[in-house]
Amino acid sequence: MNCAQHSDISGAAILSAGPAASTGQAPFHAGLLSEFDREDIGERALGVDERSGYRSILITGGAGFIGSFMVRKMITLYPEYHIVVVDKLDYCGSLNNLRAVKEAPNFQFIRGDITSADFIRFVLHHLKIDAILHFAAQTHVDNSFGDSFEFTKNNVLGTHVLLEAAKEHGIKRFIHVSTDEVYGEVPHDKPACREETILAPSNPYSATKAAAECLARAYHESFGVPVIITRSNNVYGPYQYPEKACSKFICQLLRNQPCTIHGDGSNSRRYIYAADVANAIDIIFHRGTLGQVYNIGSQYEITNLQLAHKLIELFAESRGEDAKVAIQRDIVFVGDRQLNDRRYAVNYQKLLALGWQQTVAFSAGIRKTIEWYRQHGETWWDDITDALIAHPGKRIAPVPTGWWQ
Ligand SMILES: NC(=O)c1ccc[n+]([C@@H]2O[C@H](COP(=O)([O-])OP(=O)(O)OC[C@H]3O[C@@H](n4cnc5c(N)ncnc54)[C@H](O)[C@@H]3O)[C@@H](O)[C@H]2O)c1
After folding, report:
1. Which pLDDT does position 392 carry in this prediction?
2. Is residue 18 scored above 60 in pLDDT?
3. Are 132 and 162 in contact (CB under 8 A)?
């Protein structure tokens, strides 16, 4: 078994039994995955006989939502790669997200923190990492209004540490996973943002993601670190810690609680299924041009209130209830966020030109997501009660009054 579950995340993490690609074990195959995962694995961006030349790939944040889609995909479709996951297992990450592949011969998990320079250097050097897919981040906007220093530390410093180690070590490709939120709000009368649009983040989360991007770009320009940046719309699907609208509403409804709508619910988001994002990142990793940015987008746009209505209707349908009655009962309006961008929208022609296509319609992806949470939502993480309250934001402890006043 190549899955190390160490409690020590101080930096000098102990690695699990060395690279498994050399053990001569049979490659992992999709038949060992759950029914949920099998259809989400998709296809290789490289032809079956094509080889990229990479051997050992580090995926940061691979125990999180999107990162774990990427890990399952890479482990299954690319037996020639040794996949090393580094994740500190924060509240939103779970080893359960990786359970399906933990026996795969080309998989290795290390619990550790990307902000530790010594630890990251050690991993890159000893595991001969030649490419990095960087997902690890603090990702919940609500939390960033409270404990925003955590966002700077993990998202900015963490990325900086990785870039510096990548520079020293001579990494061949570095995919930096960012978000559409770095463009800031996009009013309805403005065109969807192209990759060259000037960044205008408006909340602490998106500001730290934009700052991390600036560092990534600077390391590319100054030192030739082979960076590619991706910026995606809102992602939904199984395995997401239920703090973001889609997964949270589903878990609230499964507990017979109302969906908590921030403000009047008129803010809209574009949604894309996680497997489509993993496909896009596979294509960008293998076919994208160094130094470029690629938007990952969807045309499926829906307000938060419409999303809640849609979910309530689906639940009512499965429970044989009257949807109108259920909507009256299962919606509660709560105070809005400190700031809630009305809308994001990206133009993703560049990605389409690389050969990517969206494959999962929202109507299909959302049914599958609901079914996954029905089966696993209450047992996958620790108690999720706190995540389901209206504004779960982690707050910085109030500054104690003291001698300096
Ligand atoms: N979820 C979305 O809708 C969305 C949309 C666009 C972009 N993104 C970006 O995609 C990436 C992945 O998002 P997600 O939704 O899967 O996030 P997530 O919150 O589900 O997972 C993040 C993972 O990173 C790990 N992590 C955080 N800080 C770390 C550190 N210092 N060291 C090691 N591990 C650390 C966490 O333990 C967790 O497993 C993020 O960079 C995010 O900004 C997400």
Report:
1. 79
2. no
3. yes
Supply the residue whose CA is at minimum distance from atom 18 of ligand 1. 64
pLDDT exceeds cutoff 70 at 177 = yes
Pocket test for ligand 1, best of 59, 66, 215, 248 (most atoms within 8 A of CB): 66
Domain-wise residue ranges, the chain: 20-240+273-301+342-360
Residue 65, both tokens:
């939502």
Cβ–Cβ under 8 Å, residues 75 and 83: yes
Give the domain 20-240+273-301+342-360 fold. Rossmann fold (3.40.50)
For the chain, the first-to-last Cα distance in angstroms comes to: 56
